[in-house]
Design a protein that fits this description.
The chain is an alpha+beta fold and 544 residues long. The chain contains 14 helices and 23 strands. The strands form 5 sheets. Strands 18-19-20-21-23-22 form a 6-stranded mixed β-sheet, covered by helices on one side. Helix 7 packs parallel to helix 8 (351-364) and helix 11 (434-456) packs parallel to helix 12. It is globular. The protein starts with 23 loop residues before the first helix and ends with a helix.
């Protein structure tokens, strides 16, 4: 969590008062008035430079001036030492603005990504296929499919939507309340996700949910988990509105910076966050904010604040249940969360969606807009997913058996309560010893299991039966490799050590239905059991 006020390393400590703020942008538009002791004329008005005081990246800087003013800070420092306190009030840009402008130019150039022979280069590729009523989004690393999303044109995928819900009933024994949000099944709000004012609750121990909520009460809440099977959606009252660089937490004191950023970048962003953080609202800086400038963060925060004001205004004039804010389409959401210079492109085979995504990327990351491409299915020889070998990899991902490179295999079985993965040596007979063969087979399986969990979007409790190993250091190596492989998955996971039965237990956060459920339906004959009773058994059951 961030909360300090340290300045970035590239700025002197005495410039603490010169850091640009939201109000400083307006003052910078006033031409500088010459003062006694200045050795050069005042700089020209801001209108002579970029429009509206915008820097190269479009951000509003603290003072006008260009690269030619780079000597100003040094001259002011010499005058300050010679004249006793005159430094920092001369003409030209403030040193903080020079650093911010230089950072903006370097950051924009780096965010353009690498190119080779005029073509974008990157580790990942995103393919978006629009079909009848569904949109498929495939993410490839090289040629290997690592993630796949399916979006349907129905009300089942509502994760991130904000609703004005009405409390239907409160269940003290479950420490939960069921709310009507306008979906076929009531959504559930647990005690830990309820926000309340302690002054409104009578004293005498921790507040119970029946003391906070009452039937027919209206609440603004957000969906944190899609409805799955017979279960309704899960709600929270702690709203989070994600932007390109930050996440706004309305009416909260949450304040933090992504731990995936390096320490020096976190230190720089901590100083910027002190300027852009709105009052009475929390803010979390995302990993995508690396090298983002003050102006970019200010615009992102301002956009999210306007969105929250619109949600509140709509809630005041609406009657529960009502939808207050709908998350954008799946393609736009994935691009908002994932798209960066490491992607060599986003290929879309629908003209309407292509134009929507291209305009969205141009608004949030114009330096990457050229990496959004249209794939015309009428002129191309193969469909998009076949062209990039996605279809055949999807077919394998829907099978219960997965082959390993050495000849071993995985068996993946899903149940209502948990997912079980069995590791087998199969055709892998090894060379030297049984322990070495099992060790190598398990390492391969650990890498492939992490890939399959991510590709199939398997969540909940997962139990893995690796092949038993006698040596403790081999088991330690297995857990290290497995955790390293899971670290590439952005979905939160928790892994426990090998149990006395030789099993590895883990959990993976579940947000929606997995790949198998999104691309299949339950068999009406066996009702998903996978077996059919023979005629004699059916007759016995019917007679009984």
């Amino acid at each position: 969590m961030a909360g300090g006020t340290d300045l970035p390393d590239e700025l002197p400590d005495r410039l603490r008062e010169n850091m640009p703020s939201a109000a400083a942008g307006e003052k910078a538009l006033v031409p500088h008035k010459p003062k006694i002791g200045d050795t050069r004329p005042a700089p020209p008005p801001a209108s002579d430079g970029p429009a509206s005081g915008a820097g190269p990246d479009g951000s509003v800087d603290g003072a006008p001036g260009g690269a030619a003013d780079g000597e100003a800070p040094r001259r002011r420092r010499r005058r300050g030492r010679g004249r006793g306190g005159g430094g920092g009030k001369g003409g030209g840009e403030a040193p903080g603005d020079v650093a911010d402008t230089a950072l903006a130019a370097e950051a924009v150039e780096r965010r353009r990504g690498r190119q080779r022979n005029g073509r974008p280069v990157g580790r990942y590729l995103m393919c978006v296929h629009v079909g009848d009523g569904t949109t498929q989004i495939a993410v490839l690393e090289g040629r290997m499919l690592i993630e796949h999303y399916v979006a349907r044109e129905d009300d089942s995928q509502i994760h991130g939507n904000v609703y004005l819900g009405r409390v239907q009933n409160v269940l003290p024994g479950m420490e939960a309340a069921f709310l009507d949000i306008g979906t076929p099944k009531n959504a559930v709000l647990y005690r830990g996700d309820v926000q309340y004012d302690a002054e409104d609750v009578e004293e005498g121990g921790p507040a119970r949910i029946e003391d906070i909520l009452r039937a027919r009460q209206s609440l603004i809440c957000q969906v944190t988990k899609n409805p799955i099977g017979h279960k309704g959606a899960r709600l929270t009252q702690e709203i989070s509105l994600p932007g390109r660089f930050v996440v706004l937490i309305p009416n909260s004191s949450t304040y933090g910076i992504s731990k995936r950023l390096p320490d020096d970048e976190r230190k720089r962003l901590r100083a910027v966050l002190d300027q852009v953080k709105p009052e009475d609202h929390g803010l979390i800086v995302r990993t995508a904010a690396a090298e983002a400038t003050t102006g970019e963060l200010q615009r992102d925060v301002g956009h999210l604040l306007r969105r929250w004001e619109q949600i509140e205004a709509l809630a005041r004039r609406s009657q529960a249940p009502a939808l207050l804010y709908r998350e954008p389409t799946m393609a736009v959401r994935v691009i908002r969360e994932e798209f960066n210079p490491s992607y060599r492109g986003v290929v879309i085979d629908d003209r309407g969606l292509y134009e929507e995504v291209r305009d969205y990327v141009a608004s949030i990351a114009p330096e990457l807009s050229e990496r959004v491409e249209f794939y015309d299915p009428e002129t191309e020889a193969l469909p998009l997913l076949e062209r990039h070998h996605v279809a055949e990899q999807l077919h394998k991902a829907l099978d219960r058996k997965v082959w390993l490179p050495s000849g071993g295999s995985l068996i993946i079985e899903r149940t209502e309560a948990l997912t079980v993965i069995d590791v087998n040596t199969g055709r892998n007979v090894g060379r030297s010893s049984l322990e070495e063969t099992v060790y190598r087979n398990n390492l391969e399986a650990a890498e492939e299991i992490a890939h399959q969990l991510r590709l199939r979007d398997i969540g909940g409790i997962i139990v893995i039966d690796f092949i038993d190993m006698e040596l403790k250091h081999n088991r330690d190596d297995l857990m290290r490799v497995f955790r390293d492989a899971l670290a590439r998955d952005k979905t939160r996971t928790q892994v426990f050590e090998v149990s006395e039965l030789g099993l590895v237990q883990m959990t993976r956060k579940r947000i929606g239905e997995g790949l198998l459920e999104s691309m299949s339906s339950v068999c009406p004959t066996c009702e998903g059991r996978g077996v059919l009773l023979d005629s004699r058994a059916r007759e016995a059951v019917e007679r009984g």
